[in-house]
Amino acid sequence: MTQSLSLGWPAPAKLNLFLHINGRRADGYHELQTLFQFLDYGDLLDFKITNDGKITLHSNLNTNIADDDNLIVKAAKLLQQQSASKLGAEIWLDKKLPMGGGVGGGSSDAATTLVALNALWQIGLDQPQLAALGLNLGADVPIFIHGHAAFAEGVGEKLVAVDIPEHWYLVIAPEAHVSTAAIFQHPDLPRDTAKLSWNELLSANWKNDCQTLVSNNFPQVAKALAWLLEYAPSRMTGTGACVFGEFETQQQALECLAKMPKTFRGFVAKGTNISPLQHRLSRC
Ligand SMILES: C[C@@](CO)(OP(=O)(O)O)[C@H](O)COP(=O)(O)OP(=O)(O)OC[C@H]1O[C@@H](n2ccc(N)nc2=O)[C@H](O)[C@@H]1O
Ligand SMILES: Nc1ncnc2c1ncn2[C@@H]1O[C@H](COP(=O)(O)OP(=O)(O)O)[C@@H](O)[C@H]1O
To answer: Active site located where (predicted)?
Structure first.
């Protein structure tokens, strides 16, 4: 059996530096404007290519997600079907990102799987084809395949690459599971932020329109945000529950992390306009 090992494929986190909700479409989905930037921190995937056609996942995941429901396995099988490839893969996941926290770990794992296996199986799909495939797995998969910080509109699928300052962040992951669908269905969610041009947004007050609703319903989120706001401009990412504080230097972020109450879990990372996945792909 032909087997080759390819190690160290990053699946970085993302932050929504702002998330403005501009309206609700007839199909229930929301029109939004959001700014995605990657973090130089995330999960790590290793791949062994096999010729038996099987997809196997090994991970340090401490959850009851069945392998077939894991976005990594779903992504690998989707690519197999799409390409009619006879090759298989054994995949190792080192999970570091909080799950369901708005930092996009599941979507990022799926994107890394698609990008890595497209290269390792030598399928030859281009980036837009991979992003279109990834959209079937989740709304945030395309941004991770796109691989560049982006201003997103529509329901999050219209991406324009942007270069923005790369700050340091302290991200706190409160012990709360916030359902994205439940937040978007909630009657109290504000849906009337005016749509602005990118130039207008650059000088606007960045906010997350889900933040007040989530804080009101999850005291752990409100508590983490209140603590962070004492030290830095801070907001929630996505539909929560993670919150982030912005710092100019790594040292300032680390000093804040050192003061963090022991009841919080958090990490320090740098915002990056180019995804660490792109750097890994260029070494493939
Ligand atoms: C809004 C974001 C911003 O990054 O939230 P986070 O998931 O990161 O917190 C994402 O785009 C989410 O992406 P994802 O979590 O993949 O969402 P999906 O599975 O596509 O949608 C979950 C549910 O959210 C609602 N939804 C999602 C996106 C959108 N523009 N309008 C919506 O109303 C829909 O009810 C949908 O059924
Ligand atoms: N490899 C994976 N990593 C994380 N979550 C996964 C994975 N595969 C499936 N999931 C499911 O996807 C959900 C959303 O995951 P995640 O991307 O971490 O959330 P968010 O977009 O809020 O950051 C999880 O609650 C979990 O049930």
So the answer is: 14, 140
194 CA from centroid of ligand 2 (Å): 30
- Prediction pTM value: 0.96
User: Catalytic amino acids?
Assistant: 14, 140
Q: Band of the pLDDT at 84, cuts 50, 70, 90? A: confident
Burial 128-167 (b: 16+ CB within 10 A, else e): eebbebbeebbbbbbbbbbbbbbbbbeebeebeebeeeeb
103 CB near ligand 2 (under 6 Å): yes
> How would residue 100 be classed by pLDDT, with cut points 50, 70 and 90?
confident
Centroid of ligand 1 to alpha carbon of 49 (angstroms): 32
- ipTM, two decimals: 0.95
For residue 124, which amino acid is it? G
> How far, in Å, from the CA of 74 to the mean position of ligand 2?
12
Judged by its nearest atom, the ligand closest to the C-alpha of residue 157 is 1
The tens digit of pLDDT for each residue in 112-122 reads 999 999 999 99
- pLDDT of 62 reads 80
- Check if 268 has its Cβ closer than 6 Å to any atom of ligand 2: no
Domains annotated on the chain, with CATH:
4-162 (3.30.230.10), 168-272 (3.30.70.890)
3-state secondary structure of 209: coil
Per-residue CA distances from 207 to 33, 203, 233 (Å): 11, 12, 11
Task: For residue 99, say whether it is annotated as part of any ligand binding site.
Answer: yes
